[in-house]
Amino acid sequence: MVITCIVKGCDNKQKVYSTVMFHRIPTHHKRRKVWLAVLNMDPTTPVQMLKNWHVCSEHFTQQDYTSTGLCLKDTTTPTIFKSPTEQSGSSPDAVSKRLY
User: Fold this and answer.
1) Of the residues 10, 26, 33, 84, which has the fewest C-beta atoms closer than 10 A?
2) What is the pLDDT of residues 9-60, one digit of tens each?
3) 11 with 51: CB under 8 angstroms?
4) Main-chain phi, psi angles of 58, to 5 degrees
5) Is 14 among the domain residues?
6) 94 falls in which pLDDT band (50, 70, 90)?
7) Beta-sheet pairing, 22-24 with 54-56
8) What is the rounded distance in angstroms from the CA atom of residue 57 to the CA atom of residue 13?
């Protein structure tokens, strides 16, 4: 299965030799709730469904990563989003329909 970013307006997909990384929605319930709020997604989304959803590295700043540059800090949430005029029309709902 191809990994895609679930952020509305982002069309990033996992590709060979790409520098874009993909991060899963946190499993810790408090962090997950914050991420879903920031992503404007339903906070009651089943955890099983969230396991297949990813957010790409383009939605995080360099300061959001640990010193290795690979892992997100525990307090990090996605903060970089395209403006509505830049969005291509993708939505988390559309992505979930593509995934299943």
Assistant:
1) 84
2) 999 999 989 899 999 999 899 999 999 999 999 989 898 989 999 999 999 9
3) no
4) -70, -10
5) no
6) very low
7) antiparallel
8) 11
User: Which range (2-6, 29-33, 54-58, 82-86) has the least confidence?
Assistant: 82-86
**Cβ-Cβ contacts under 8 Å for 44 (sequence gap 6 or more):** none
- In this structure, the chain runs to a length of 100
Quick one: tokens of 3? 């990994």
Q: What span, in angstroms and rounded, lies between the C-alpha atoms of 38 and 50?
A: 15
Interior angle at CA 84, CA 77 and CA 14, nearest 5: 55
- Provide the 3-class DSSP secondary structure of residue 72: strand
Residue 39, domain extent: 22-99
Q: What are phi and psi of 23, to 5 degrees?
A: -120, 140
Note whether residue 81 is domain-resident.
yes
